[in-house]
Design brief:
The protein has 624 residues and is an alpha+beta fold. It has twelve helices and 26 strands. It has three domains: 240 residues, FAD/NAD(P)-binding domain, CATH 3.50.50.60; 129 residues, no CATH class; 154 residues, Jelly Rolls, CATH 2.60.120.260. The termini are far apart.
Length: 624
């Protein structure tokens, strides 16, 4: 039989990102928004990775589950969650998938390859020149070229193919002198998890155990909360903060209708990646075995409250926590996390606990599934942890960044990965503009930091110092304001509440004719862009989640504090020269682009919020 000719295509981009999880997606959107020709190669049919409908891990971050809400991640990931919140009242993961798909589809300068698996890369010396892929749905083979490559695969697959230096397992205490490092290096690692969801049908429902399912006893699950009755029965007295552990790590698994992050396995070999399929099969056996135990347990040690529950969904694709970590010019370590270090070249921050799971998951029957080292505050991650030490044009984003295992235990959380991805996308765009490799961007790192802040992000220890922002030298006034929330605070460089400092203008109520914030420029200028950061109240989460407890923390619809309807007048010598009207806003960051208009005054008039009785504006920027 004659062999059919291969379908083959080639394309060239400025920046190419491999991996369509939240870190890769945020990197791609951030880069493309700078006008850089960007490609995103995604091996799955939907975006979001662990946060997608395939795996359904909700996005946690530095707020530690509302414990320190001032540090919730902003930027693109928050923009996507706000968009979802405005359109997805019933926490549908299909709608969330659509939100991510739409964001990528409508983004100019971005090409997305779905269902496309990278199977090799080409190199010249210490540089990647191209990657080779196959798009399984079309039988198309692709060779994709680029100047800068970003590994957002989670496993560090592109870096591995290219010969990048990497780590696996735990570092010895002698290397970084980390407080919780083992005396000798080992291959302990966190495993993969399959999630499940049940539904209360209001009447008794039977469950017949499949032949492949494990038989599990109460003894085997004694350290893992799988029913409400167990919440206060597990001994956590040996942990640094037992009550905090219960609050954040247990309650999400206390109800039998959502679970279970601790359904976790990591294989038996030296490398978790080649064992992925076997681990998946074993996880299926355990997941259905857990459900069989909940429904058909004959030991009657606990009341599982499951008579009316029916299994509604079981993930078929495990979520991975840990595999390779690619080495950069700096390896973030546990001391940086616990000492809240602020790096001079910081481009990201984290605040999740040092969250190490039992090294053998479900097989560690006598251990708690997770040992969280809680702390207050946040730490930063340096730019040097986001590019390869030995592959000149390779950057990385997500859980494969340059970090020790203990630091990765905190930095791996999805919110941190997402804002790190955005920072990498902005840095990659700067590399293209300055015509330098990632290491060569060091002299320009303040530009990246200012890009992050300009786009609604946050960096602890940094503030708006953008020389092009005319608002920094303007004079502000307002129709009314509350004490401590004066109008000039919209230009203090910090675009969110931190502690007791509001860092913004808050009106004293909302008058029928609206509330105004007026910016008077030092001299007339041809403005072309205005940026506003509004209040959304980080105390209330907005993420899509399967967890009833996490859903109960949320408010319905758009955050009421957000400004909804407003207009902006540009004036010159007291005369209006341009008016811009915005209706139905549901975003925290608003960017208004328009034809250059000479003016000396900008007046923001807020006509309504989404329900709040007053108006809050954290930041106002102006560019000519």
């Amino acid at each position: 039989m004659k062999r059919q000719a291969e379908r083959f295509a080639e394309a060239t981009y400025d920046v190419l990102i491999v991996g369509g999880g939240m870190s890769g997606l945020c990197a791609a959107l951030a880069c493309a928004r700078q006008g850089i020709d960007t490609a995103l190669v995604n091996s799955r049919p939907m975006l979001g990775g662990n946060a997608s409908s395939e795996i359904r891990i909700h996005i946690s971050g530095a707020d530690q589950g509302t414990k320190q809400p001032d540090y919730a991640e902003g930027g693109i990931v928050y923009e996507l969650m706000l968009e979802n919140k405005s359109r997805n009242e019933n926490f549908s993961y299909s709608i969330w998938d659509m939100i991510l798909f739409e964001a990528a589809q409508k983004q100019e300068h971005l090409t997305v390859y779905h269902n496309t698996v990278m199977y090799d890369c080409e190199t010249e010396g210490q540089r990647i020149t191209a990657i080779n892929c196959v798009q399984e749905t079309t039988e198309m083979r692709l060779r994709l070229w680029a100047n800068i490559f970003v590994d957002a695969t989670g496993n560090g697959t592109l870096g591995y193919y290219a010969g990048a230096e990497y780590r696996m397992g735990s570092e010895a205490k002698s290397e970084f002198h980390e407080p919780h490092a083992p005396k000798e290096p080992n291959n302990d690692r966190m495993g993969n998890t399959i999630m499940m969801l049940a539904k209360d049908l209001g009447h008794p429902v039977n469950f017949q155990k499949p032949a492949f399912a494990k038989h599990l006893t109460e003894k085997q699950l004694a350290k893992r909360i799988h029913c409400r009755d167990m919440r206060d029965q597990i001994d956590v007295s040996g942990l640094p903060d037992p009550e905090e552990y219960k609050r954040t790590s247990m309650t999400s698994s206390a109800a039998s209708d959502y679970g279970y992050w601790w359904c976790e396995l990591m294989g038996s070999g030296d490398d978790i990646i080649p064992e992925f399929e076997k681990i998946r099969d074993d996880l299926m056996a355990y997941a259905y075995g857990i459900w069989d135990h909940i429904k058909n347990n004959e030991e009657h040690v606990h009341d599982h409250h499951s008579e009316n529950l029916a299994l509604d969904w079981v993930g078929a694709l495990p979520g991975m926590r840990e595999s390779r970590r690619l080495e950069g010019d700096y390896m973030l370590n546990e001391n940086d996390v616990l000492e809240h270090r602020v790096f001079e070249d910081a481009v990201c921050y984290g605040g999740w606990c040092v969250d190490l799971h039992a090294p053998h998951g479900l097989l560690d029957e006598d251990r708690l599934p997770s040992d969280c080292g809680f702390y207050k505050g946040v730490y930063t991650i340096p730019y040097r942890s986001y590019y390869s030490r030995n592959i000149d044009n390779l950057m990385f984003a997500g859980r494969d960044i340059s970090a020790s295992r203990l630091a990765m235990a905190s930095a791996r959380i999805i919110g941190c990965c997402a804002i790190g991805g955005e920072a990498v996308g902005l840095a990659a765009a700067r590399c293209i503009r300055h015509k330098v490799d990632p290491r060569g961007l060091a002299p320009y790192i303040r530009e990246v930091q200012q890009d992050i802040l300009r786009d609604g992000g946050y960096l602890p220890g940094f503030k708006n110092e953008d020389p092009d922002d005319l608002a920094r030298t303007a004079i502000f006034s307002a129709s009314s304001f509350k004490p401590g929330c004066e109008p000039e605070k919209v230009a203090n460089g910090i675009s969110r509440k931190i502690g007791d400092e509001m860092n913004g203008w808050v009106s004293d109520g909302l008058a029928p004719e609206g509330e105004t914030l007026t910016m008077s420029l030092r001299e007339p200028a041809a403005l072309r862009e205005l940026r506003f950061v509004f209040h959304s109240d980080f105390r209330y989460p907005i993420r899509v989640t399967m967890s009833p407890n996490r859903q109960a923390q949320q408010r319905p619809g758009v955050p009421p504090e957000l400004v909804r309807d407003y207009n902006v007048e540009l004036l010159l010598h007291g005369q209006t020269v341009r008016t811009i009207t915005v209706s139905g806003n549901h975003q925290r960051l608003n960017v208004l682009d328009f034809e250059p208009t000479v003016c000396d005054t900008v007046r923001l008039r807020v006509l309504s919020t989404n329900g709040a009785p007053d108006v809050t504006v954290f930041e106002m920027r102006a560019y000519s």
